[in-house]
Amino acid sequence: MILGIDLGTSVVKAAAFSRDGDVLATEGRGVKLYNPRPECSEQDIDETMEALGAVVRAVLEQTDEPVEAVGLTGQGDGLWLLDERGRQVRRAATWLDARANPIVEEWTASGVFEEHFRRNGNVTFPGAPSAIMAALKRDEPESLEKAATAGYCKDVVLQRLTGVRATDASDASEPFMDHSTRQYDASLLELFGLEDYERLLAPIDESPGEARPLGKAGAELTGLPEGTPVHNGPFDLPATAMGAGVTRLGDGVIIVGTTLACEVLTDRVETGGEPGGQTLCALEPDRWLRAMPAMVGTASMDLTLNLLRSEHAEIEDFLAESPPGANGVGVLPFFSPSGERAPFVEPHARGQLSGMTLGTTRSDVVRAVAEGVGYAAKHCLAAAGLKGELSICGGGAESRAWRQVLSDVLQQPLKVARRPEVGARGAAMGAMISLKIDFDHDAWTRAEDEVQPGEDLAELYEEGFEHYLARVDSARDLWGR
């Protein structure tokens, strides 16, 4: 069997797959996020490793087949600092971290932000490695001086499991890559004032990357035999696109998770238009994913349900009780304290609820949030260049009613990606590709279901989208004041 490991922001998961792509066992363990200050979001690397060992051992207890290979994926961005022995210098700053908000504002005002996008195809937001590194350089330089590696989550795990210091092209895509060579561009480090820290960047594997043998420490942690091949796959956004079967140019996927990640496969690096989103290397040397990882995913619904003192199980009923259009209630679901990063960047973006009357119900508010996330997805997919089929996955997509709302708002059929653990599935596929293990790609990525949009709602939601864009434009004039 093939083992896929997904090192998420709040949960570390492992899934065992048969050669046919069937899920044999899954296991997850929560990992804590620390907030030493309101703007900080940190994770303990040792706690992440403990969770990884626990989920792998739990999966092995549920199965009898030998593990042919392990594929790694996990959260992107953030800054994970290791010393020469691969031990943490300090707790990792995750992609949710906002301590670099003032620095991103300075870079925006000085032109650094836009120049970076024009050269790299990625926007710099507070949780990006460049921004966090610059914040530590200003406020905590001793951490950078003690470090031997400034890496990404799954790269840290690779080093702890195999002893190899490396990263893959998808994680390295932002912020320091020259996409024409898929190697670091020293002048981009200079642009951010970080040239003294080039030594901290791990070597980039050539796609699809090689598998490394599991070392003694990794074997003791996981219970896997020493020498088991471990592949450092794409991080979670590209890995999920792989697991969802996005292979044709113009096809895309929506991941309705903490981040609303909208991705479209392309054969070029786009650096024109308004800066927004990410350009991520795919496994193939001439393919990229134009990704719009908006900050308006399931966290927007979580906040709404919490304020209404309701449970996730009630979403289906709420959406059934309020009609399309939410009786005139509209939501801008920009509730993240870090603002928004796709398809536009506004660190001070904040949410809005409008159109309420004395007759507004809880169901109307929940539907308005569900529709607002749908409008945000439509905005992102248009910016990413969607032209083909669209798949959907993620925790929010588990709701059949919310899937239907998204399909209706987008006026696009949605293929429900094969579950569970779509990201871990992509990681397992990456490991097989690296090791040249034959597998049936179509079987591994077949859709479980397809949602058809209500065509009678096309006019309603086209008008709703126009109103959404107008509200966004109006709000952007106020956010910066």
TrEMBL record:
Pfam families linked to this entry: FGGY_C (PF02782), FGGY_N (PF00370)
Keywords in alphabetical order: Kinase, Transferase
Domain (Carbohydrate kinase FGGY N-terminal): residue spans on this chain: 1-243
Domain Carbohydrate kinase FGGY C-terminal: 320-434
GO BP, sorted A to Z: carbohydrate metabolic process
Residues in coiled coil: none
Gene Ontology molecular function, alphabetical: kinase activity
Record's keyword annotation contains Calcium: no
UniProt xrefs under InterPro entries: ATPase_NBD, Carb_kinase_FGGY, FGGY_C, FGGY_Carb_Kinase, FGGY_N
UniProt keyword annotation of Cell membrane present: no
Family listed: Belongs to the FGGY kinase family.
Name of protein: Carbohydrate kinase
Originating organism: Rubrobacter tropicus
